[in-house]
Each structure stands twice: as C-alpha cells, then as structure tokens.
Amino acid sequence: KLHSDLDKGVGTVKYTLSGDGAGTVFTIDETTGDIHAIRSLDREEKPFYTLRAQAVDVDTKKPLEPESEFIIKVQDINDNEPKFLDGPYVASVPEMSPVGAYVLQVKATDADDPTYGNSARVVYSILQGQPYFSIDPKTGVIRTALPNMDREVKEQYQVLIQAKDMGGQLGGLAGTTTVNITLTDVNDNPPRFPKSIFHLKVPESSHVGSAIGRIRAVDPDFGKNAEIEYNIVPGDGGNLFDITTDENTQEGVIKLKKPLDFETKKAYTFKVEASNLHLDHRFHSVGPFKDTATVKINVLDMDEPPVFSKPMYTMEVYEDTPVGTIIGAVTAQDLDAGSSSVRYFIDWKNDVDSYFTIDATEGTIATNELLDRESTAQYNFSIIASKVSNPSLTSKVNVIINVLDVNEFPPEISVPYETSVCENAKPGQVIQTVTAADKDLSPAGQRFSFRLSPEASNKPNFTVHDYRNNTAGIETRRNGYSRRQQELYFLPVVIEDSSYPVQSSTNTMTIRVCRCDSDGTILSCNVEAIFLPVGLSTGALIAILLCIVILLVIVVLYVALRRQKKKDTLMTSKEDIRDNVIHYDDEGGGEEDTQAFDIGALRNPKVIEDNKIRRDIKPDTLSFPRQRPPVEDNTDIRDFINQRLQENDVDPTAPPYDSLATYAYEGNGSVAESLSSIESLTTEADQDYDYLSDWGPRFKILADMFGEEESYNPDKVT
C-alpha cells in the first residue's frame, strides 16, 4: 500500500505505478494506493520485481512528491520436487567386490530456494535394489551392500533411487531415477572338462597336420578370463599328436603330427590339460585354474597302397653289360590285414628311352639296351607299385642307376704340343713335359706310364723320362743338333693306363730344331734362315725386306700410271671419231640404245632429212616441220655451220639447256679425201672396212669399231 502525507482523503491525489510487471503482474488503486497482484507469481521464474510509484495532483497533474522506488520480493514455497538431470544412470562394478565398493554417485537438483526453509534440502534413499546396494542419504554415493556377488549367478541389477526434499520429512516432494548396474567379470572360475574321458576314431590314412578331433573345457568366465590353453601331457602318444586352441570356440583341436599305421599300433591314450591364460592373483587360494582329461584314440584300418622297403634305391652296372642282365630289385609290401599281391612297372613318363625293364611280379630290374658310360653316366627313373586287389592304390619310388666305367679307351696326350730343341742343346736336357688324358672314368689311383716305342729306343736322339706322377719329360740324348742335316724329328711315345684290361696308345710328337742364343732363347725356327749369312742381324734383314717392298711399290705405281696415260690417249682418239656428231650430257641407254638420234643421215650430207621429233626427250609442244635445204658438196664449211646453228636456234623441240652439236664435215681440198661417210654416195652396207685392219695398230680401234657394226647388222639401212 502506498500513501502520501499530502493525501487528505478528499480525492485530490492520484497514485501511479511503473517498472517491472506494472500493469501486467501488478496494479495499483489510483485513489487508495493499494497494490495488487493480478496473476500468480513463480519465484523460480522471477524472484523479485523493481517498481516506481508517484503521487500526482489530480487537477494540475503535477507530482506532489518525488518518485520513489521499491522492490517486491517473491517468497518461496515448496512447489518443486527434486530432479535427476543425468538419469537414468548406467554403472558397473567387478564381481566378487567387497562390501562398500564404490559404484556410482547420483545427484538430484531442487529448484526451490535453498536459503529459505527446507524446500531445497534433498535426502537420497533406495526404493529398489536392496540388499545388494546402499546409498549415502546426503551425498548420493551408491556402494555394494553384499560381499562376493557372482556375475555367473546374476550379472544385471536395476536400482531405483529416490530424492526427497524437506529433509525427507512428511509432505516433502520426491523425484526418482533408475541406476542399471552390471557386474563385470573377473577370472574367478577355472576351466572344467565336462567329462573325464574323450573317445576319438581316426583313419590311419589321415594326413599329417590334419585335425582329427575336438575337445572342450568349460569356463563360466567371460572374455579374456575365459581364454583356455590346451597342452598334451607327456606320455603315451604325445609325440604323434598336437593340440591347439580355436580362438573362436575355445575348443582344443587335436592334430596329427606323424602318420598313423593300424598294423603297427591300433590305439593311443594320452592326457590333455586345460588352463587359463590370464590369472587373477586374488583368487589363487581358490585352487589351480586348470583341469585334466584323458583322450583315447582308436586307429581305423584303411586300404593303403603298398610300401617300398626303402625310400630310394641306388644300383650300379658296368657299361656294355649284355642285354637282359639283372642289376637289382625293388621290394614293396602290402601291410594291410588282407596282404594283397603287388605288381611293379616303370613310370615311362620319366624313362622315354626304356633302357631298363622290370619284372612285374618279382620287381627285378634288368638292362634292355647296351649302356655307354661316356654317353650317360647315371639314370634316374621311378618305379610304381600297385595292389592286385585295388590297382588304384599305388606308391612310387625313385631308382638311381650308376653306370660303372669299363676300361675301353687308351690314354692319349692331353694337348698337342709344339716341341722344339736348340741346336746347341746338351744331353739330358728336358725340352718338353707331357701329360695324358683318358676318356674312361679314371678310378682312384689310376696311373699312366710313358715310354718310347721299341723302334725308337735304338735311336740316340731323344728319350722319355717317366716321372711316375702321370707326367713325363722329353730329354735330349745328343750333344747338339743341326738344322741343315735334319729340321724335324718324330718321336713315338707309348702311353699305358693301369686299369683292366690295360689300354695303350702310341703318340707321335714332332720336335723342331731351332737356332737359339747362349741362354737357350729361341731365335729362329724357319728353314729359310739356315742359308742367310751369319753376320746379318734380324734388324738388318727387316731393313732389306722393307727396301725391296718399297721398290716393288714404286714399279707397280709407274706401270699403272703408264697404262692409265695410254688408256686416256686411246679414249681421246676414240671419242674424236667424226661419226659422233652430237654429245649429250645426260646418260643414255648404252650400246643398245639406237633410238636417241639417227646418225645415218649425218654421214651423208646429200640426204635431205625429214623433220622428226627428237626421240631422246619428250617435247612439251607440237614441233613444226624443219626445212633443211640440201647441202652441196662445194658449200663452204662456215656457211654450213651457220645454217645448222640457225636451224637449232629456231627449233622448238630443242632442249631447254645448252647443247653442243659437233659436225665433222671435212670440206674440200683434202689430199687423203674424207674418211667420213657423210658425202659417200654408197650406203653403209656397201662399204667394206676390212682394209682398215691392214693399216697398222694405229687404226686398230677404228677397224674394230666398223668391223663390229658390220658383223652386228650388215643389212642396216642408212
């Protein structure tokens, strides 16, 4: 309520209100100044309001007093229950935890004023979840209330928590939330086999490394705490089997380490131990975390292929052994209870040459062809054995046959030697050391012996000294040798081996006599050097030979130049023949090309040549007839050449390049008269050129030329 001291109660004062909530939340009576709330107030929405009030004269509208400010505070009541803003909750705690183990802390929030009364004082309690868990009423911390809670018994727990204000008193408001608690696993349980004996049946044909059975120990724990390791306890059968753990199923997989044989042993018994990999030291007192079971394996009999007595057979045979000779045998046996017969045959895929045969029943191997160690020293092939009762069951074994050497080749000198002896050699001097080779396979300790052949033993020139180590030395027996008397000596050497039968060969060595200096260095072994003066040295001989070669080269060059000069002169005279009228710079078709131009008309100036298109070039335009007046016998040569020059200048078929036309018209006044056929009244066929051969060698080329033309085409028309 507002009141001014100037208000006399006669209605002259008017009260006004402004500020937070004026007119919306609060209103004022203008006459009495009473302030009323026009709607419900919520402290949690707005705890206080700031307002301003003023008294105004009704008539003048002027304020009677200064504006005053006041605050309206909303008083709290318990109208909000506690709320769990983070609920529902999820928590976990290890199984077998002791009493009071911390699980989780929950918190409820009350929107009421914590400074006014107990409206915001919250107390926690468990409505559901006892007697397993407890909660602190003030802090909201949840703890275990029972010891040794076992996850394998119950894993999930749902706890209902209540938060109540007013300190938990009657009439207080309450809120609830759910806490889902999971017991996590610990390794508190050892693995256990569900039974003490496991029986397995395994065929004897099972492959090494294959799985032959599974056993499983049960561990109620979870995750890595349930991981199991299996081991075979050393004892009967432990070396034939192995066991591993299947990571997905935690089963023990028994595998075969070695082949099984029903005929050897029909049953195996051994123990398998299962233990945890990850142990918890808190539970060692419970007992050993492992268990043991017995595994009995019965081997099942299967129809198996024959078994060879050896994994591989090695045999030996001498070369050239007669065909059909037995060199060995293989043996295979059926170990099954039925004991079927066995048949043998060679795997021809690996023995295409079929050098051997095998007896199908006995397994004996014999030669089928003559063997040659020098051709093939070893044979490697396979033999297959099959059961008569079941031919599809086969086994294979490798057979190696080594061909032994028979001494059939005599030893020979290993390499051809070039042996020489000095003219000034002394007796007993070794001039060559020789070795021998034998194509036969030399057994250990074989030795070669060297000696002279009987026909050379009585000649006092050379001898052979056997060193007893498969080498021998050629020694001189004379004091000096002469190349003039004998240049070459042939020494037959007999070489024998030590095998049986003894083989020997006679090898002829060639010994050349050479000229040497005083130190034994060979200077020359050529026979031509014998007849040279003794005083000339090697350098002087080389100089003489060089001078001779130079003189020969000079003579050859001189002769070649003379022939070339003579040839050029003859070619010039041949090219100056008057019949060759026109020279072309382009290449023609050779001697058989007679279409380039007609030379016959040029030989007889009296013949009037018809206008013809040139046959050596292709004209670009049509040619015009060329009129050539006949040339008289007494026409001066100058007029004749000028006339022909003018005709070539106006000729449209002339080539577009310069061409030299040579006319060998001789004119009048020659004492010997003309040799040309230009002014001859007779044809070329009427001429007889045999007389040119009588004029001597200077006219030989001319005679040959006209003689060839006459013999080639005597009926040619000019």
From TrEMBL:
Alphabetical list of Gene3D superfamilies matching this protein: Cadherins (2.60.40.60), TCF3-CBD (Catenin binding domain) (4.10.900.10)
Molecular function terms from GO: beta-catenin binding; cadherin binding; calcium ion binding
Subcellular location field: Cell membrane
Cadherin domain span: 4-84, 85-193, 194-308, 309-413, 413-531
Record's keyword terms, sorted: Calcium, Cell adhesion, Cell membrane, Cleavage on pair of basic residues, Glycoprotein, Membrane, Metal-binding, Phosphoprotein, Repeat, Signal, Transmembrane, Transmembrane helix
GO BP, sorted A to Z: adherens junction organization; calcium-dependent cell-cell adhesion via plasma membrane cell adhesion molecules; cell migration; cell morphogenesis; cell-cell adhesion mediated by cadherin; cell-cell junction assembly; homophilic cell adhesion via plasma membrane adhesion molecules
InterPro entries reported in the protein's UniProt record: Cadherin, Cadherin-like_dom, Cadherin-like_sf, Cadherin_CS, Cadherin_Y-type_LIR, Catenin-bd_sf
One GO cellular component term: catenin complex
Pfam family, one: CADH_Y-type_LIR
Membrane topology field: Single-pass type I membrane protein
UniProt function note: Cadherins are calcium-dependent cell adhesion proteins. They preferentially interact with themselves in a homophilic manner in connecting cells; cadherins may thus contribute to the sorting of heterogeneous cell types.
Protein name, as recorded: Cadherin-12
Organism: Chauna torquata
Taxonomic placement: Eukaryota, Metazoa, Chordata, Craniata, Vertebrata
